[in-house]
Amino acid sequence: MNTPAFEIRPCTNVLGAEILGIDLSKPLSSETVDLLRKTLFDRGVIFFRDQDLTPEQHIAFAQRFGEIDINRFFTPVEGYPSIAEVRKDPDQVSNIGGGWHTDHSYDLAPALGSILYARELPPCGGDTLYASMYAAYDGLSDGLKKTLEGLCALHSSRHVFGEGRTREWGDLKGRLQNMGAATQDSIHPIVVRHPESGRKALYVNPDFTVGIHGWTQKESAPLLEYLYQHAARPEYCYRFVWGPGSIAFWDNRATWHYAVNDYSGVRRLMHRITLAGVTLTPDSIDLSAEQNRASA
Ligand code: SIN
Fold first, then answer.
1. Homologous superfamily, domain 7-295
2. 101 catalytic per annotation
3. pTM of this prediction?
4. Ligand 1: does its nearest atom lie under 6 Å from the Cβ of 97?
5. Model confidence pLDDT, tens digit, residues 78-129
6. What strand order describes the sheet that includes 113-120?
7. Nearest atom (ligand 1) to Cα of 97
8. Which of 103, 116, 161, 175 to mutate to test the pocket of ligand 1 (most atoms within 8 A of CB)?
9. What's the CA gap between 14 and 237, in Å, rounded?
10. Cα 271 to ligand 1 centroid, rounded to whole Å
């Protein structure tokens, strides 16, 4: 078997890897795709630098890893409905993704991951933070792990993107759309077994998780707040500094991300393609009846 001719350089002990010496505009062998997939699922996020891709090549790269999941809330790139525009213009204050989250956890089968490609960057700032949910799970006490394993959480898009939303959009007008489509809720185990790596990961996030299933808001909030503080500990995080042509490809089941909004008066323009995922299970809980109720 030929060894793919690129280098995989881990970013921290628990998260991320830079892939060096690869040109994503060229067709990739199946062996290369397999190794990139394995690295993605193991490290949670992989980074590429100095890539020069047309939108068609971005799409072709994404399709090697799965089916594209079209985001219903982000304005698409003109002429490319499968690419979402993640854009902040010089006159805007708010940004997209400026809080810890994992994409599409409100869907019954949450997205596998996203491939974010830098098109225009501020001279400095606009980094993206990532946090490992494998490390967050591993770092819990045995007692709390045991408690969490029997629990599920509710996730929703309504309060962020919906008609009656409680989250401020600020001046994101024109960047987000389709409020009427924010009707999807879902229930997922709080501890999931990653469908590819087989590892356990914490699966709640501050943006889209709205409570613990079967618990009141008052009961849920302190435990969720504790998990959010714990999961964002610096030792589980990595800060990616973008350069021209950088790509971050993250796994939503194994990481959180956070777009740092520390620049103003300049444009930051990224193209995001999201890949469809599968239903998440803890191995031990049959969620089908609950899932059907949540989506009814
Ligand atoms: C996102 O949340 O998808 C945006 C991340 C970023 O712009 O860095």
1. Clavaminate synthase-like (3.60.130.10)
2. yes
3. 0.91
4. yes
5. 999 999 999 999 999 989 999 999 998 888 889 999 999 999 999 999 999 9
6. 7-10, 17-20, 45-48, 247-251, 113-120, 268-275, 80-88, 76-77
7. 2
8. 116
9. 8
10. 9
